[in-house]
Design brief:
- The relative contact order is 0.14.
- The protein is mainly alpha-helical.
Length: 93
């Protein structure tokens, strides 16, 4: 029962963080939104995770940044890996 709760919490955390990344990316389309208080807070939450991916894949043509897509896929793989480990542990209990 406790493992089921952990899996659910991890699922919610994954979804929320993915939505935060998407919201932060969409904010770049609107002028001056990233400079607002909400934009700054969101940047402090999301930017440390996106920074390594931006170093890996620079923007295409200086304008199109596909690194957030890679970051979301990496987050999904990490999430799936953690779930796999939890399921493996649950089989032994």
């Amino acid at each position: 029962m406790a493992l089921y709760t952990i899996v659910n919490l991890l699922g919610y955390a994954y979804q929320i963080y993915s939505f935060l990344i998407i919201a932060y990316i969409l904010m770049s389309w609107l002028p001056n939104v990233r400079e607002s208080r909400v934009g700054e807070i969101l940047g402090k939450i999301v930017e440390p995770y996106l920074k390594p991916f931006r170093k890996l894949i620079p923007p295409i043509g200086g304008m199109i940044d596909i690194s957030p897509m890679l970051a979301i896929f990496a987050l999904w793989f990490i999430y799936q890996g953690i779930i796999g480990i939890i399921v493996y542990i649950a089989r032994w209990l």
